[in-house]
Write a structure and sequence with these properties.
The structure is a single chain. By secondary structure, this protein is an alpha/beta fold. About 40% of the residues lie in helices and about 15% in strands. The longest helix is centred in the middle third of the chain and has 17 residues. The two termini are about 30 Å apart. One of its GO terms (biological process) is oxaloacetate metabolic process. Its cofactor is Mg(2+). This is Putative citrate lyase beta subunit. Keywords: Lyase, Magnesium, Metal-binding.
Length: about 300
Amino acid sequence: MSNTEVSNTAWLPQGPALLFAPADRPERFAKAADRSDMVILDLEDGCRAENRAEARKNVIHADLDPERTIVRINPIDSPDFAEDLAAVTDSPFRTVMVPKVESALVLGDASSNHRALPEDFRAIALIETPRGVVNLADIAADPQVVALFWGAEDLTAALGGTSSRYAADEVPTPGGGPSGHPGGYREVPRLTRAMVLLHAASAGIVALDSIHADTKDTQGASAEAIDAAASGFAATVSIHPGLVPVIREAYAPTEEQATWARRVIEGAAENSGAFALDGQMIDAPLLRQAEVIAARIR
């Protein structure tokens, strides 16, 4: 089994709250890392195009924990991709977020054997185009993809839409959001969110939930994070540190969940295959759930 295959099944975020930090603002790196479970140094949308050359140097010299740091590079087909990749290669970081992923991570057409990323890189595939949604199965099966993430706003723009969510004066369809109230996602973003979660689980990797764009709406962000945690997302991404506390609270396991996860993990260490726990058959998917809960506790 290759190193990439090992990382594909083993990677979990270091906690439920991931936070973007613009790569051209190095003075924010340490604070963002301190306030979140993992920091995403952003060379794409969060970084001014004219600042990218300097931002790459910031990434190379960033004094951050590699296990708690992700670098969002520019899309594979963009003119910035090669330089971004070179910068990350020269840095201590090996987990990258790749935007607008639409197929397996190869250069050229789907039959190409030329990998877009070095073999020791882990990739979080950002699904934010119609083609990316349609090709989710192939993307999730890529051996270097360790997680799926999705973006509602870019997807809506690519669809020709004007709003990913119901407005306050609109009447949503039943189940228009986690709370059932206006402000929830419209139908295609909701479908995409579900598909990302389903395809990630099917491939044995994790799913990360999209940002809550209204950074002042802590109640809405909390409702979405509670739903994400219960549905099976491993973490929620934020663009503002003010939402980190409500995300952490939403993902915090109950005492009962923590006890169950500990017992499952202990049982798995003593059994090479499926085993029974309090009348419940524990197999690989339930062990995976226990590991996610344990990660949230840490």
